Structures are given as structure tokens and as C-alpha cells.
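User: Here's a chain of 346 residues. Predict its fold as C-alpha cells.
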Amino acid sequence: MNQKQIFNKIRNRIAFSILFSLACATSAIAADKISIGYLSSTGQGKFFIAKDAGIFEKNGLDVTLVEFSNSGDGIAAVRAGKLDAGAFGSLAPLIHISQGADIRVIGGIMGGDQAVITRKENAGSVKKLSDLKGKKIATIRLGTADAIVRGGLKKEGVDWRKDVTIVELKNPPAVIEAVKNGSVFAGVTWGPHDLRAEEAGLSVVLRSKDINPGHICCRLIASLRKIEGRDDVYKRLVKSLIEAEELVQNDHKKSVEIIAKWIKLDTALVNKAFYSGHVTQDTDPNVKGVEFFWDFLKDAEFIKSDKKVSEYVRTDFYKAAIAELRKENPKSEFYAKAENIFKSRN
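Assistant: Prediction complete.
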């Protein structure tokens, strides 16, 4: 081997070493670790799908999912800085915002999917919320379903402070058990626990979409201190959830299999809950929907605030994410439709 060949061999090795080091460095930088809080619900299936289908990883995110049994505990973790993001109903974050929390809504996870349940022998007597006047109702602390029912009662002329007895319980299984053993007349829960209630011999008598059509539910939230300086991380998080939403629409089998593994339910039951038509999966933050629910909560006397809630909704992450996806998938009807829906709501 002559001197020139030796030189070229050394140069190539050095070049390869540099390129390998750069690739490793880029990979290390891209793999941002984030923790996300969630509730065990079919409606939050996009988190599980983005995790198991490799979507988070593809977008340079190393995600840890942390389960909570109710919105109250989850929102406390966000406020304490223990989570980078979370989705805990729509009631909890809006109440905390009204109280001065530095929370921001940065996207959507789901809408609808709340239900009122009773024992079968009582089901025929409940056609509307006002039929619950004088009854004892179990709800879940700071849950969207709780707000939907209290606001709906007020709308139907029933004072939820005086005309009914509301018992706040820790989680959906506790609500189901309270209805089943007769300690309360009715209970309020979310999917797939509505189906679990039916399996336990109870009846779903009202759906939240009938009480408050088109209402938002779990919003993707983060504290302002976590967001600052990390805009690209949160854009990639939202982008991952949009891609998961696309998979939800176009691959039912894979979506159901992933969700069933996470919430430990039979795939047939998950399919029934997730594709029932009772739940929506839009990822956009939906400013108009947040404003509508904010006004609903104020009217129901859940919150008292003069704040302009739209100032607490960040739409820039979704806007940047959907623009990237449209550029990467110019022929996709799904992303084109999603972008148009975003523009109409925000």
C-alpha cells in the first residue's frame, strides 16, 4: 500500500468517525425525554398508539406515560412540575386557570364519551337530567362528566346544590360500585367504564353528547414553565398525536389492539367503546370549544372569572405541526381536512 492509499484510508476513517459521532449526537439531542399523565380511558387511546406504534420515537421523543385515576391528582402533578404534559378532562384545567394557574391548553385529546348510569330497575324513570331531582348522584372529582351533569341540571331548572345530593368519588370503579350497591341512585363516568357498568348489570340512561352536544373533553395541557424554551419539543408532541389520530381513522385493527393492551380490555369491547360514535379524537386545541365550555362552567357556577380563556390556549404548536404534515404528505386527505377543521375552530 503506497503513501497516498494509506492517507486516503486514514482520511476515510476519520470522516466516518466524524459522521458517526454527529449522527449519535443528533440522535441524542432528538430523543427528548418527556413525561405525560393520562387517565385509563379508551378516549385517550392516541397516547398509547403514539407510544406503541413508534410515532413518538420517530419524532424524537422518549415518552413515559404516567397513569392517574382522576383529573384532580393529574392536574396537581402538572402544576407541581412533575409532568411535562397531561390530559385530565376539560373541567380540571379550566378551574385551575380561573384560579391563576400557569397552565396552557396546547391541544386536544378527545371529546364526548361521558355517561350517566343507574341500576336497571331505575333506568326507565330517567329520560332527562331533571328526572334526577331529589336523588343522590355519584361523580368523579374534577371530571368533565361532573361538570356536564351539574351544568345540565342547572339548564333544566334543577339546583345542583339543593335539589340533588352529589357525592364525589375517586374513580370510575368506585362510581360503578356505588350505583350497583344502591348507595347512590345514579352515577357519572366515562368510556370504557360505561361498558364495564353494563357488564356489571347497570344501564346507561344518558350520554353527554345529548346533554351538551359537541362538548370538548380531555385537553392536552402543560405548565408555562415547562413549555418555555422547548417549543420544538411540544410541536413534536402535538405532531405525534395528529399522526396517531390519522392511524386511529385508517387502521382500526391496530388501534384497537394497542388500546386493549394498555387498558386491559377485550378487543371487542375496546372496538365498541372507541368506535361507538360517542367519542371524537380531534387533536386541535379547539379555541371555540374551550370558550364554549368556559362559558358553560361559568353559567353552572363552577367558576367565577373575568379572564379571557383564549389567552390560555396555545395554537402555534398544532399550526406548525399540521403544516409540516401537510408538506410531508401533500396528497393526504386526512391532514388536509384536519388543517381546515383547525382553521375553523381556532
